[in-house]
């Protein structure tokens, strides 16, 4: 069932159904909190939605922690690290845009 939910989440990710991706991955993580695919996909879904950046960041930090604990399994030059770095870069870009919007909004309110 675990793999079925992950595959379903992957299909829904391609279709842009991010709430379903989040719910399916959350279900997997409730049974296996160390599942790197579920953490990665749920983080991606939060990032794509764009309003839950802190939740995406939390999932990516948890994923990074898992990868760091097993350097023999997840090599620094491996695909897991490459994907995580790419997503972290996208997250940082979204945070930057969010902060700029917030800065402009508060500047107009108090300026």
The residue fraction in helices comes out at: over 70%
* Helix-strand topology string: HHHHH
Rg over CA atoms: 16 Å
The count of strands amounts to: 0
Share in β-strands: under 5%
How far is the N terminus from the C terminus?
A: 55 Å
Structural class assignment:
mainly alpha
Mean pLDDT: 93
Using the alpha-carbon principal axes, give the shape.
globular
Low-pLDDT residue spans: none
Number of helices: 5
User: What does the main sheet amount to?
Assistant: none
Q: Could you describe the 3D structure shown?
A:
The chain is mostly helical and 111 residues long. Helices cover 82% and strands 0% of the residues. The chain has 5 helices and no strands. The protein has helices at 2-15, 18-31, 36-49, 53-69, 79-110. Helix 1 runs parallel beside helix 3 (36-49), helix 2 packs antiparallel against helix 3 and helix 3 (36-49) runs antiparallel to helix 4 (53-69). The N and C termini lie far apart (55 Å). The mean pLDDT is 93.
């Amino acid at each position: 069932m675990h793999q079925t939910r992950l595959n379903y989440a992957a299909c829904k990710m391609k279709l842009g159904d991010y709430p379903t991706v989040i719910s399916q991955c959350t279900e997997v993580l409730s049974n296996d909190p160390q599942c790197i695919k579920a953490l990665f996909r749920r983080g991606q879904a939060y990032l794509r939605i764009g309003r839950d950046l802190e939740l995406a960041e939390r999932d990516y930090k948890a994923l990074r922690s898992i990868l760091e604990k097993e350097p023999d399994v997840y090599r620094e030059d491996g695909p897991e690290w490459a994907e995580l770095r790419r997503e972290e870069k996208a997250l940082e870009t979204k945070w930057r845009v969010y902060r700029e919007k917030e800065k402009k909004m508060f500047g107009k309110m108090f300026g």
